[in-house]
């Protein structure tokens, strides 16, 4: 039960119930689809860039609590960041959720609530979907839809 | 029931004894006794199957049809004996109508790429249903694409039953093949395949029945159904993975071109010309899954010894119990409530994604499937991205369902 509580912390349940920046952006600089074929999670990420600053970022879609909360927390974390900082944060977040559970991880502030997925290998993709989608969205040339497969 | 006049006395269904024959069920998962409710994905294996595999490799392993030595004779006898067992189980007219494949999927592809290519031309139609597994959709799509034919889809109603009125409307002179599951893995719906086959034959269409789910839940009689083809898959029949069955009427199989070329499927080979072997060998190129066939036969014998009627009665009783028990869970909605159903309970819970449900109940030792169940069109029809699915088999009990329901209450607790 404790690992479950670790996974489904209040903050995650709250962001699942009331996801932040859960909307479309009209005329965004970048739009990117993300899809997790394993569970059918789907999201559309909208990014407005002001120069190389993430001026606004929002998402829509359907997914499990982990993927929704992760997307919601990500949008909060990214606003106002430079694109290279966003990419660096992807790497740090990805490292955090893929480090074996018995090893220490970097403190990423609010994003650290997602470290609990390390105990649930099948759920790591849920937590990383939004982040993979973001990485592609802010890449120089966007390709087709992102999948976690 | 009172002991009436005629009829042999049937011992009550002894589920505890049945469970004792499945070693895997004795374990704990996350500290709780395992409750295995993902049988629609694959069933567990009784000791009889595990023993058959071991005995084969320890006493008879050799290649089949290729040697005069004693082991080869033994292996061949085991393999061909398995074919006879399958023929009996499906009530085929002759063992040569039984082709061993890798799984149900390969059976469908085989028929699409041989019979399908012969029968289906430009402007023709192949009819499937809205509840098919991807493996009974994609091979037909591929065929239609290459043949210039059209794939048409019989819709389902809000309960998940097939719209027979639409089926009658859609079948016409252009329909060459109808491909339909006898039992839907995503909804539990049992389709009236005998009736569908009669309608299709009336219109001159051949019918492939996907029995991947049906064959372990109910008695199957391919002759009574009069289907042209029937596919099923060993790992859901309490047998091993990597072995499946295609039944085809002998007249069809004889007229069809081979699927793959190689050893065993030939009568003679020169560089100028190869003559193909007779059926079933024509469709079994290369060394087959000998142990798999023998293990599958052991699985079928296991079910036959219990009795398919009794298995079905046991599972129907669980279905009724489970349907009522799940209905009492707050916010739960069953997806698939057709009047004729087998023991598959697909559901969603208000505001909680199936994936989260799956993770939480797993921590209580309860294994269910969550996702689209390889039936994305079904998910779309019901407007859900995924469902949670509990599928019950011959070793499941009311206690298993009680454990599932208790774990769903934990889901509610976690989500507040
Ligand atoms: C209805 C149905 N058809 C076909 C299949 C495919 O079976 P297999 O993957 O063993 O070929 C399955 C099982 O996954 C199924 O449930």
Report the strand count of chain A.
4
CATH architecture of chain A: Alpha-Beta Complex
Distance between the amino and carboxyl termini of chain A: 29 Å
Question: What is the CATH superfamily of the largest domain in chain B?
Answer: Type I PLP-dependent aspartate aminotransferase-like (Major domain)
Give the termini separation of chain B.
Answer: 45 Å
Q: Find the CATH topology of the largest domain in chain B.
A: Aspartate Aminotransferase, domain 2
How is the quaternary structure best described?
heterodimer
How much β-strand is present in the residues of chain A?
15-25%
Any idea what the CATH architecture of the largest domain in chain B is? 3-Layer(aba) Sandwich
Task: Round the mean pLDDT of chain B to the nearest integer and report it.
Answer: 95
CATH C-level label of chain A: Alpha Beta
Small molecules bound: pyridoxal-5'-phosphate
Unreliable sequence segments of chain A: none
Structural class of chain A: alpha+beta
Annotated CATH topology of chain A: Sufe protein. Chain: A
The largest sheet of chain A has its strands arranged as: 3-2-1-4
């Amino acid at each position: 039960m404790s690992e479950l509580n670790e996974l489904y912390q209040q903050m995650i349940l709250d962001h699942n119930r009331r996801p932040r920046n859960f909307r479309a952006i009209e005329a965004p600089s970048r739009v990117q689809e993300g899809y997790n074929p394993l569970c059918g999670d789907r999201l559309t990420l909208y990014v407005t860039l002001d120069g190389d600053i993430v001026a606004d970022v929002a998402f829509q879609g359907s997914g499990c609590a982990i993927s929704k909360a992760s997307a919601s927390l990500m949008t909060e974390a990214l606003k106002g960041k430079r694109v290279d900082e966003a990419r660096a944060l992807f790497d740090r977040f990805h490292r955090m959720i893929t480090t074996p559970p018995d090893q220490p991880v970097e403190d990423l502030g609010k994003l650290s609530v997602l470290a609990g997925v390390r105990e649930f290998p099948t759920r790591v993709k849920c937590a990383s979907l939004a982040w993979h989608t973001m990485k592609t969205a802010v890449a120089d040339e966007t390709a087709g839809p992102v999948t976690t497969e | 029931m009172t002991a009436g006049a005629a009829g042999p006395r049937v011992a009550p269904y002894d589920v505890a004894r049945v469970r004792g024959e499945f070693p895997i069920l004795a374990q704990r998962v996350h500290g709780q006794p395992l409750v295995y409710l993902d049988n629609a994905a694959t069933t567990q294996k009784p000791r009889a199957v595990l023993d058959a595999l071991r005995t084969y490799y320890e006493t008879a392993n050799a290649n089949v049809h290729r040697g005069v030595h004693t082991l080869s004779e033994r292996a061949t006898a085991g393999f061909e004996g398995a074919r006879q067992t399958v023929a009996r189980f499906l009530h085929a007219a002759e063992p040569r109508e039984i082709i061993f494949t890798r799984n149900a999927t390969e059976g469908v592809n085989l028929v699409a790429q041989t019979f399908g290519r012969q029968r289906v031309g430009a402007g023709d139609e192949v009819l499937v249903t809205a509840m098919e597994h991807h493996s009974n959709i994609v091979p037909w799509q591929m065929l239609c694409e290459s043949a210039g034919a059209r794939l048409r889809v019989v819709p389902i109603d809000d309960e998940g039953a097939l719209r027979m009125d639409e089926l009658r409307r859609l079948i016409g002179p252009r329909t060459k093949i109808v491909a339909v599951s006898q039992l839907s893995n995503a909804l539990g719906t049992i389709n009236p395949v005998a009736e569908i086959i009669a309608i299709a034959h009336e219109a001159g269409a051949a019918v492939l029945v996907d029995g991947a789910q049906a064959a372990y839940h109910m008695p199957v009689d391919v002759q009574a159904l009069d289907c042209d083809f029937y596919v099923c898959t060993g790992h859901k029949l309490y047998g091993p993975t990597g072995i499946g069955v295609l039944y085809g009427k002998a007249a069809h199989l004889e007229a069809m071109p081979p699927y793959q070329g190689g050893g065993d499927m030939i009568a003679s080979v020169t560089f100028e010309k190869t003559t193909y072997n007779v059926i079933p060998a024509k469709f079994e190129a290369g060394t087959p899954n000998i142990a798999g066939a023998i293990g599958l036969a052991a699985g079928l014998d296991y079910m036959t010894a219990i009795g398919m009627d009794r298995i079905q009665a046991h599972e129907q009783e669980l279905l009724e119990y489970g349907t009522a028990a799940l209905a009492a869970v707050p916010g739960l909605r069953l997806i698939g409530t057709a009047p004729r159903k087998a023991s598959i309970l697909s559901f969603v819970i208000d505001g909680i994604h199936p994936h989260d449900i799956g993770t939480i109940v797993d921590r209580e030792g309860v294994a269910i499937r969550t996702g689209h169940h390889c039936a994305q069109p079904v998910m779309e029809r019901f407007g859900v991205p995924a469902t949670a699915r509990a599928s019950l088999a011959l070793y499941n009990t009311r206690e298993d369902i009680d454990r599932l329901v208790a774990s769903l209450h934990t889901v509610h607790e976690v989500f507040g």
